[in-house]
């Protein structure tokens, strides 16, 4: 691969003799040559610019000088390499340079001519002419800020492309793991000796020798960093590369895998408001049958829904101070999950008539504070197992913890159908323990429930 740079400051590229680029040239993996644009001028002042047509500030580089220079360089080296030539023009008006474009150049192009403009840029007809002449013209930018000229951007392109040329980098695996490569995530933080430096320690998991745990920790850090710094990259992520733990982590960061397309989208968990009433009535009525045992009749289920999930009841839940309703909302406004809790006054018991385990010990510890009832915890079917349950529970727990902060050990309880293995396992994973049984009526049919409970303040 050969790079020819044309610039009014060719000495700028002396640094290409250093480091990896220098070594790569010695090993004949790449060639880099810098040329002075003024060598193609014919006047005594070696003029390369003129005033802008149409007026305005600054100077514009002349198309005729650039044309002669680029023709010469393309002719001089085109025949030799024989492969594809690309005319790269750094400009703040170009497309933002990406790793994917660099990888493409590293594999496809044999000859890259970089035309470094100064002043207000190069006469627009240069790019137009070479495009028409069948040369691939690549106008790129380093980002949303302005440099004095294209030289720094030319070096950036050379480094980014050259290191992807086969044989350049000693360990090809390091190319795979680093930021902006296939993974589509930012790189995790890295550490080396000393173990402790200025009271900052290397994270313990990395010293444990457990490679699986280290890999998981790094993956989580990549996801956290990307969510915090580059949410745009998360939205573009190919979700087929995500495993279950990735999805759970992403849900805790506020992203879920959209079912319509394999894309991540942000979601919000928040207390329900009055405007949610119709959506909550619809969602709650629709998901309730999913949790019912097969022996309940359709009539009994329908009666229960009509009585408990109508809009008036929801208006009551959202306005009465003893209830807490948290909802999970997609970017498009759709509600996909909710919890409903009843918080008794003082250190009382919610759901006494519904089988509340008033004297329960949780983890062997006595309750000190209210016994809250979580009467609903539903996730719409397409969104289960994507980490929403954990995220919704954690938001609900935090809100309950806030509401019961005057007490040392408040407890939350719930009942779920005895035969619903999925729900029982899910509650166990959320830190609930099985503490008893109750009878629960759906319509006028009896339903055998198991009762779970857990502390509120503990994460
Ligand atoms: Cl490629 N050129 C100039 N002049 N300024 C820039 C740039 C390029 N990328 C960001 N700013």
Explain what you see.
The protein is of the alpha/beta class. Helices cover 33% and strands 25% of the residues. It is built from 14 helices and 19 strands. The chain has helices at residues 19-26, 63-81, 99-108, 125-132, 151-162, 172-177, 211-229, 231-236, 244-252, 277-287, 298-308, 311-319, 388-403, 421-429, and strands spanning 2-7, 31-36, 49-50, 60-61, 84-96, 109-115, 136-141, 196-197, 200-201, 255-257, 264-271, 323-330, 335-342, 361-362, 365-366, 371-379, 411-417, 433-442, 445-455. Strands 10-11-12-13-16-17-19-18 form an eight-stranded mixed β-sheet, with helices on both faces. The longest helix has 19 residues, at 63-81. The radius of gyration is 32 Å and the shape is elongated. The model has no long low-confidence stretch (mean pLDDT 94). The structure holds 6-chloroguanine.
Molecular shape = elongated
Q: Would you identify the CATH architecture of the largest domain?
A: 3-Layer(aba) Sandwich
* Corresponding CATH superfamily of the largest domain: Gcn5-related N-acetyltransferase (GNAT)
What molecules are bound to this protein? Answer: 6-chloroguanine
- CATH class descriptor of the largest domain: Alpha Beta
Which strand order spans the largest sheet, edge to edge or round the barrel?
10-11-12-13-16-17-19-18
Low-confidence stretches: none
Portion in strands: 15-25%
Main beta sheet, described? 8 strands, mixed
CATH topology name of the largest domain, in short, is: Aminopeptidase
Radius of gyration: 32 Å
Mean pLDDT: 94
Approximately how much helix is present in the residues? 25-40%
Q: Classify the secondary structure makeup into a structural class.
A: alpha/beta
């Amino acid at each position: 691969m050969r790079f020819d740079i044309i610039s009014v400051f060719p000495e700028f590229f002396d640094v290409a003799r250093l480091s990896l680029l220098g070594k790569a040239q010695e090993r004949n993996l790449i060639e880099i040559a810098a040329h002075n644009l003024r060598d193609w001028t014919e006047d005594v002042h070696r003029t390369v610019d003129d005033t802008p047509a149409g007026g305005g500030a600054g100077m514009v580089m002349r198309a005729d000088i650039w044309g002669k220079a680029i023709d010469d360089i393309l002719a001089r080296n085109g025949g030799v390499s024989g492969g594809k030539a690309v005319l790269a023009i750094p400009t703040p008006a170009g497309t933002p340079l990406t790793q994917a474009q660099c990888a493409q150049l590293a594999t496809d192009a044999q000859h890259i001519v970089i035309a470094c403009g100064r002043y207000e840029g190069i006469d627009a007809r240069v790019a137009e002419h070479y495009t028409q002449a069948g040369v691939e013209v690549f106008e790129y930018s380093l980002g949303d800020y302005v440099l004095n000229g294209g030289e720094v951007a030319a070096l950036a392109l050379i480094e980014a492309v050259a290191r992807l040329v086969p044989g350049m980098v000693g360990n090809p695996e390091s190319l795979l793991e680093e930021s902006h490569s296939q993974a589509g995530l930012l790189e995790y933080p890295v550490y080396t000796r000393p173990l402790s430096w200025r009271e900052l320690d290397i994270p313990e998991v990395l010293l444990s020798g457990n490679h699986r745990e280290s890999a998981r920790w790094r993956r989580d850090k990549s996801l956290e960093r990307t969510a915090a710094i580059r949410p745009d990259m998360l939205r573009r992520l190919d979700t087929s590369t995500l495993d279950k733990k990735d999805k759970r982590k992403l849900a805790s960061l506020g992203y879920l895998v959209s079912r319509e397309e394999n894309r991540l989208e942000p979601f919000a968990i928040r207390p329900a408001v009055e405007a949610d009433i119709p959506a909550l009535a619809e969602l709650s009525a629709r998901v309730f049958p999913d949790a019912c045992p097969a022996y309940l009749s359709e009539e009994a289920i329908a009666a229960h829904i009509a009585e408990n999930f109508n809009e008036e009841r929801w208006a009551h839940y959202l306005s009465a101070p003893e209830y807490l309703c948290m909802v999970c909302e997609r970017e498009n406004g759709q509600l996909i999950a909710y919890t409903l809790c009843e918080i008794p006054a003082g250190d009382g018991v919610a759901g006494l008539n519904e089988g509340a385990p008033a004297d329960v010990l949780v983890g062997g510890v006595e309750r000190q504070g209210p016994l809250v009832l979580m009467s609903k915890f539903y996730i719409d079917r397409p969104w289960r197992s994507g980490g929403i349950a954990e995220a919704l529970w954690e938001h609900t727990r935090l809100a309950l913890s806030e509401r019961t902060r005057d007490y040392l050990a408040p407890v939350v309880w719930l009942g779920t159908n005895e035969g619903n293995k999925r729900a029982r396992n899910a509650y166990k994973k959320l830190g609930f323990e099985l503490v008893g049984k109750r009878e629960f009526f759906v319509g006028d049919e009896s339903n055998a429930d198991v009762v779970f409970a857990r502390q509120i303040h503990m994460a």
